[in-house]
Amino acid sequence: VSEDTALKATNKGKMRAALKAANVPVPLYFRVFTKDEYLNAVNEIRELGYRCIIKPADNSGSRGIYLLEDYSPKSIEEAYAYSRQSSRSGELMVEEYMEGAEVSVETLSINGKCHVIQVTDKVTTGAPYFVEMGHSQPSRQPEYIRSEIEKVAIAANHAIGIEDGPSHTEIKVTKDGPKIVELGARLGGDNITTYLTPLSTGVDMVESCIKIALGELPDIEKKICKASAIRYFDVEQGTIKNITGIEEAERIPGVRQIYVVHGVGETLNGIKCSGDRAGFVIAQSDSVDRAIAACDEAYKLIKIEVG
User: Fold this and answer.
1) What pLDDT, in 10s, does the model give residues 21-62?
2) Whole-model pTM?
3) How far is Cα 213 from Cα 240, in angstroms, rounded to an integer?
4) Ordered DSSP codes for 234-285
5) Separation CA 67–CA 77 (nearest Å)
6) Cβ(99)–Cβ(63) below 8 Å
C-alpha cells in the first residue's frame, strides 16, 4: 500500500474523513486533540440524542475503547482518562455509538479489484470495552444484508486506496444499514485468517498475500463450503492455579484446536483488551450452529482454577 493508504488504514480520524468523502456510510464522529474539544464533542452527541463511544485514533485490539453508560461528569472524565492513555498521539475519536450486530469482512484486492473471501460474525464482551470473545463463519446475516455488507466493505477499500493485498473491515449492521466501524490494510487477527477462513472456504489468505507481494496471481477460489467458529476463555480476574480438561475437550467431534495463551502462574486483571484473553477453542462443522456448539461443549470441559 502507499504511504497515504497506510495512514488512512491506521489512523481512525484520517480513515473516517476518507470514507465520508467517498460517501461510505460511517457514524457521526469528531476528531479531538484537547480536553476542551473532547467535552464539546461529547456534549454535541448528547444533544443529538445518541449514545457516545470514545476510542484512541491510533490503536487496535480494543485498547482504550470506552462506551459512556451515562453523561455524568464522572463517566465523561473516566472515559477520557481511559481512552487517552492508549492514544499514542493524543488524538481521540468521539463517536455516535452504533447499535446492531457486528461483522467483519475478509477481502483480498488484486490489481485494483476487491474480492470478498468471507464475512465473519462477532461476539464481544459488550460495554464498556467491547473485547471480541468469539467469531464464526459464514455470517448468519440474511443474504440481502450480506450483499449490502459486502458492497460497503468494497467501497471502503476503494475509498482508502487499497489496490493490492488484504483488508479486514469491521462493520455494524444498524437500523440505517451497514456502517463502517474501521478497516485495516491487513489480514484479520484472532485466528480469523489463519484458521477460520481456511476451515470455512478452503482459501489460504496468508499464501495469497505472499503471492500478491511476489507479483504472482493467488488462488482465491472457494474450495469448500463449511462453517468454523472460535470462542475465547472468559476468565476475568485472578492468578491461574490449574487448567484441566483440555485433552477431553480435544476429542469432541469438530474441535480443531485448543490453545492456552495465559497459563498457570499468570495473573489476569479482567478482560479489557484482546491480550487479556486466556485461550481459545476453534471448531469446524457443516453448519455455524454446530461449529459454535462444539466450541461451547469443549469449553465446558475445560476447568481454569484461579485464586
Assistant:
1) 999 999 999 999 999 999 999 999 999 999 999 999 998 777
2) 0.89
3) 42
4) ---EEEEEEEE-HHHHHTSTTEEEEEESS-TT-EEE--SSGGG--EEEEEEE
5) 12
6) no
